[in-house]
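Late entry, written up from scratch paper. The run itself happened at the end of the previous shift, but nothing got recorded in the book at the time, so transcribing now.
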Amino acid sequence: MSHRSHLPPLSPALRFTAFVAAPALCLAAALVLFGTWSLWATATEVDESIRGRQANDVHLALGAVLDDVAQSQAGVAIWDPAYAEVQKAKPDAEWLDKNVGVWLNYVFNHELDIIIDGQDRPVYAMRGGERATPAIFARVRPALLPLIQAARGSLRRAPNTHERLPGQKLAQNSTVRTSPAAFHATDLVQVSGRAAAASVMRMIPDSKLVTGPPGRQPMLISIRFLDGKLMGDLSRIRGIRDAQIVSAPASTKTGMYSVPLRSSQGMLVGHLGWRPDMPGRDILRSIAKRGGAAAAALIALLAALVFVVGRLMFRDARSIGALEAARLELQAKEARAQYLANHDVLTALPNRAAFNRVVDGAAGNVAQQALGVLLIDLDKFKHVNDTLGHLAGDQLIQSVAGRLSARLPNGGLLARLGGDEFAICLTEDLEAESLGTLAEACLAELRKPFPILGSEVQIGGSIGIATGTPRSSDRTELLRKADIAMYSVKASGRDGYRFFTAEMDESLANRRELEEDLRKALGARQQLFVAYQPKMDANGATVVGLEALVRWDHPAKGLLTPDLFIPIAEEAGLIHALGGWVLAEACRVSKQWPGLTMAVNVSPVQFKAEGFAATVRSTVQTCGVDPRQIELEVTEGILIDDAEEVRAALHDLRGAGFRIALDDFGTGYSSLSYLKRFKVDRLKIDKSFVKRIGRDQEAIAIVQAVIALGHAMNLSVTAEGVETMEQGSLLRTIGCNELQGYLFSKALREEELSIELDGIPNRAIRGQRAG
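Output as recorded:
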């Protein structure tokens, strides 16, 4: 007879304590602690924010003092009478008192003014409104010598934002308020152990009647000590309490705060301390008096609630545990599925889907100079499978993957497309000789014997190579060409490589046929039509505009999108006629919807044509449409040439009222310099980034950066290709101005606009249809 030992069941009281009461008390304590911490953190942040703002006010006030000192000097330093008086062998001190010293002291609060001649000899001084002996210059000369030399031009240094130095441009973000004729060195200095704002300005005539040797003019030196009236102004005007100049950083234990005062050359001249406002701490004390009662009430309410639901929580604990286990298992399966969706199980190389994405991205990136694909098919692989079995075939595939990976150049991508087919994508070093060398290296590895299941297997490979440039070749075209070249190798005996040539491709005839069909369609105007895709506001609740998209309903090939025939139109010289027709159609429809903007894509070939801006203005004027309603979309490629005709056309069109949008931003030569040189009104985020939102953190970061850049430059930002609610919500959260994509509407024919726009659920058309 077997015996089992059982632990005694927990009593109801113990179960309640373990599973309800204890967690409730912990939760209540956590809430109280969290609330206390939150209040403390918020109060600290408020105090730090105010302290930072006051520190900024201090620096702004000091900057204003420096600019005021220099500006006040100009009234007497650039003045014929003062210049002439100082040039005398014995200047009239009383005249200088009345017109220089007393004026600067009384009106502008200068505490020390000194005039030195062209040989740096003092000829006049006033201190605190009283004439002083010029010998006082000897005491302040060491501190002011760098400023004197800089003002004379004998000492080269980078100018700060408060000074204008001879022969040098103003500093970036300069706040100088003096005239261009004034040359002065202005900075914080330490004079006799006291922090001061000092300025040294050349004394020159305000007319051409009197001249002097450059750099040897008399100099007016003006000083305002920071520990004087300025501290009272900070407390009285800017609310900086107990402002004072101190020699060492203030201790926070005393309730004081300080910032170091440094010259533009980095020399410490003192510290400015003050008693910062602490509203956060005061609020925290006030809330703490009433928080105890609220916390007690919260704990009591929580205890009552936990008492009611405690038993239910314990009853459902097992179910919750099972659900958690299922969730973790599902996450693991999702991670595994994500890996399998992008990798080949046998070799751990990227699979066809991952390879396609990489090639698509490279083909859409105009920053790439070229793009190359090597398609590798193993010779005699079927024979190995048939004679040694599938296990041997699998081992052979793994060995081939290892050898090809060892030959892969930096920056290249090796993938297994399936079966015995591999592919390499390259974006660098794409000269024919380098590609041939890589192909020979791969073939050499494949020709070496493979030890498989105790036997040596001899195989080889057939390699097809295709190259192209971004925008001129897509992934399908490159792979098709590489496939044609590879089968050309197989047809000629295998074990080699070939580059794709036009002679291999019968599709060239089809391209010529498509060009001729397009020419006829443009003449008849029966197969081409313009569709219009709505653009929504950031909330997705209001239609704010339309984008005109040309389509071709080919009688034999069906509906063709622009990417299939626009390149042909550009190469055949048909793009001007096609683009002009699309613009006229868009203007005609735009006139029916005066409350909506109308975006029209413009080819770079069109934009660079002579007289393009005049043609656009004429077309819009003929249609009777306000140019401000039309938005011209251009790609970054148009900005790369930095051509004068492009810049002139942009300036002309924007001056006429047209808005300019930069399409597919972020996929090409995205550069802040282009946005600064070529004025645009809107950035359009490429749909390749939008599509990856929710799946790729890098894509989200790129989109956030584009939106931040656009807003920093006062540009509106539109996201195209929005297909999911998640994408729309995230774009709205990070500040995108307009949304466009299938989430809201497909591109509509003209006759569908009234019905479809009015029928978009929960949407409102901002503009009413005309007529």
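The chain is about 50% helix and 20% strand.
(Scratch paper discarded after transcription.)
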